[in-house]
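Customer escalation, tier 2.

The customer says the design service returned an amino acid string that "doesn't look like it belongs to this structure." They asked us to rerun it and document both sides in this ticket. The original structure tokens are below, unchanged.
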């Protein structure tokens, strides 16, 4: 994903249940390089290398907060 700036709107879809939420970028964290190599799976669907963090409100719209990390698709189109 190309680096975007604050205010850019995108949709995040949970690949486990198909739920989707539209959010905008609020800030860019200082240590996003630490996300490389992380992996999340549900059933046979997996995704690696976290791209973004959602607020608790946005995350709870697509998954249970207790899930922590989920495989997701980010639609920037």
């Amino acid at each position: 994903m190309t680096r975007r700036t604050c205010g850019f709107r995108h949709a995040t879809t949970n690949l486990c249940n198909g739920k989707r939420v539209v959010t905008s970028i609020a800030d860019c964290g200082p240590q996003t390089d630490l996300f490389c190599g992380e992996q999340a799976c549900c059933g046979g669907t997996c995704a690696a290398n976290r791209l973004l963090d959602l607020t608790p409100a946005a995350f709870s719209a697509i998954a249970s907060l207790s899930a922590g990390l989920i495989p997701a698709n980010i639609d920037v189109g």
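Tier 2 assessment: The sequence is consistent with the input. Residues 56-62 form the longest helix (7 residues). The CA atoms of residues 11 and 75 lie 5 Å apart. Sent an explanation to the customer and offered a walkthrough call.
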